[in-house]
Design goal:
With 151 residues, the protein is of the alpha/beta class. It contains 6 helices and 5 strands. β4, α4 and β5 form a beta-alpha-beta unit.
């Protein structure tokens, strides 16, 4: 029997709930949930928009504004490290916003992430933790990962 959820687990569950809102509506991108938290309070929460853009992190950062500086971002899938459209990646946007820590459930095997997002965050001096509730979030990405591997 497990004990009470840690704050990281509780906020990641909120991010998973966000991702579920648009699950199946975001192709060709997966549905990602992002929750920004500072001092134990949720600043903003977002999911990838239907059709795949804007990404969850972009929306949450826009909603939080300057309050994102010093916050913790809980993201269900590794933030992108590059963008197919050439826009700033989510990892870059999180760094520019001054987020101090990023907690990630699942790694992203796509060519635009695949460790690049984590590398960019760490290079910017941001603490990164991966695998938080990965077992609870991985179902969100099973079909998407299968399609990536079949291409």
């Amino acid at each position: 029997m497990s004990g009470p959820a840690t704050p990281d687990e509780a906020f990641m569950r909120l991010a998973i709930a966000e991702a579920l809102r648009n699950h199946g509506l975001t192709a060709p991108n997966p549905s990602v949930g992002c929750v920004l938290v500072r001092d134990g309070a949720v600043l903003a929460a977002a999911a990838t928009a239907p059709g795949g853009r804007p990404h969850a992190e972009e929306q949450a950062l826009a909603a939080a504004g300057e309050a994102a500086r010093g916050a913790v971002a809980y993201v269900t899938l590794e933030p992108c490290g590059a963008r197919s459209a050439g826009n700033a990646s989510c990892a870059t946007l999180l760094a520019q916003a001054g987020v101090q820590r990023v907690v990630i459930a699942c790694e992203d095997p796509s060519p635009l992430a695949s460790g690049q997002g984590v590398e960019r965050l760490r290079a910017a001096g941001i603490m990164v933790e991966t695998g938080v509730l990965a077992g609870e979030a991985e179902f969100l990405y099973a079909a998407w990962i299968k399609s990536l591997r079949s291409q």
